[in-house]
């Protein structure tokens, strides 16, 4: 939830995901549910030492969500109390029944007796405790009621109790008609300290000030920590509209509406809510009270800054620049260095869309450290590391920089940035082709516990960093042929980040890419082609590249070449070096298929120079394998074998299973081609070694179900066994080859003209 995190950080009224609601106009009032809570507290005081330690502990844990949450049905309240202390639930029910079925004076006497809880040298309840404050608020609210209001409250209590009695009667009838096994299946434990359910809020009526504060703080915390547990966007907006109906100047409700609109990418509603938030903040005087005369200007400059962040999120860079200039102007007039540092960070983000410049970012990091802004300084260091990784800096220097930022994180307990740092390390190792190191970093983040306190039942680390690491983990498993494990990870991602959540696009893209690779390996090009549209919708560059791969596999060489040339120009323009190298390798393969072997060499050398310049070791190794294949085609297999030994080690250590299989297949081809000039005995040894390498390649291809490559390996093995006079093995390979050949379509391309 990067956007939410940015908003949380740049907004002075939201701290650690908790909204500080201090401008709500409706006070607490007495309701039948709160009277039931008062009876519970009264009976708890009467029980005293009769309650066991475990029961008292459970009741104490139960009380806080009951006092803070919305009103609930009496049956649910009774069930919650029964789970903690069954005999106390019976006492509460009897006391409520006597009051509801008695006279009005019984309720009057009950409120008179509540004051006795504070009397004596050792009172049952301290006045300043959570329970004491609740009791005093209720007593005060009851004493302010007129006689007609007291009578309405008494009538409401009777209806509240009678509704529960009717429900109990209906439940008894249902139990008589229902099997015990079915009834046990329906009974589920309800977590009171978990997130509020939609039907609870909808039936609870207008919320009091305390309940509104609790509702807003809970939903804001859930949006940050575990979006799936928060109310659905439509339901949350409905409840916020109800809150604003009673008090349109409730600024924090407008801000939560802004965060909710960001979830569904609604630019109009999010802008509308954000502007209303700062308008109400100024109108209510909340800022002026806390910041003196400076409060008005402070709201204006942070409003402009948040508006710039919002426009930048939606890609409206010109509007973002105008809003940012306004924020900078107001901050300079007010001499607000903190706001200026935030503006400087966003100025770098905007200018990065036009040209790469580290000057602004380095200046921002230094100034942030000077003014004691560790969060902003760390974000700047993370951005610098990311930029320098794309610029090809050495991995050890980048890791040293990240180590310095980690010291800031642990020193100031910045849990969110610790997660971001580990996710960044995972992505950097993936970029450099070190899959083992990337896997280690991913497992580190998954095994970490969040430093932030969250409610029971709320998932920790349910953030963008977590989604990124899980996506990398799924792709790493798929590359090694563990498709079942990758599917389980993606299933977990879908549950944790539903399709309507902010980070769903991450796993959607990886899911489509994994399906695409499986379809290509299996030779189902029509399936792969159907997946291209989905990939393009999520990432245009990836989609165009995969469309070209499908065209190449279908032998539509001219269309594939045109598409790759356009993509190459675009990627060079936006400086996407990784994709530039991949496109160059695909273009070289097109030249091989078209028998233009000499034209492929300069293209491969260009790709190798780029890979080494930007420290992309794995892509460099893959390029060397392609160069070795070119030398094999040009008739110099000995030279090809020599350079293969340089590149094959990183591929076998960190490469995908398919690449390992292709590398071993290429080694076998070079060994067979070199054996032509050997003595008979040495030639037999070379062919035996080639067969062993082909067996290893066959194992790799079988792991990813790559039937086309398996067919080629079997054909090659059959020829070698025939040369060595091993008839039985030859016939076995020939039979397996025939089965695959009948299953797969023929391409009409010579076997030797394809590296992958």
UniProtKB/TrEMBL annotation:
SUPFAM superfamilies: TPR-like (SSF48452)
SMART domains assigned: TPR
One GO CC term on file: spindle
Occurrences of domain Anaphase-promoting complex subunit (ranges): 254-353
Anaphase-promoting complex subunit 5 N-terminal domain residues: 30-167
Superkingdom of the organism of origin: Eukaryota
Pathway: Protein modification; protein ubiquitination
An annotated GO BP: positive regulation of mitotic metaphase/anaphase transition
InterPro entries assigned: Apc5, Apc5_dom, Apc5_N, TPR-like_helical_dom_sf, TPR_rpt
Keyword Zinc found: no
Annotated localization: Cytoplasm, Cytoskeleton, Spindle; Nucleus
Entry keywords, A to Z: Cell cycle, Cell division, Cytoplasm, Cytoskeleton, Mitosis, Nucleus, Phosphoprotein, Repeat, TPR repeat, Ubl conjugation pathway
Chief place of localization: cytoplasm
Functional note: Component of the anaphase promoting complex/cyclosome (APC/C), a cell cycle-regulated E3 ubiquitin ligase that controls progression through mitosis and the G1 phase of the cell cycle. The APC/C complex acts by mediating ubiquitination and subsequent degradation of target proteins: it mainly mediates the formation of 'Lys-11'-linked polyubiquitin chains and, to a lower extent, the formation of 'Lys-48'- and 'Lys-63'-linked polyubiquitin chains. The APC/C complex catalyzes assembly of branched 'Lys-11'-/'Lys-48'-linked branched ubiquitin chains on target proteins.
UniProt family annotation: Belongs to the APC5 family.
Protein name stated in the entry: Anaphase-promoting complex subunit 5
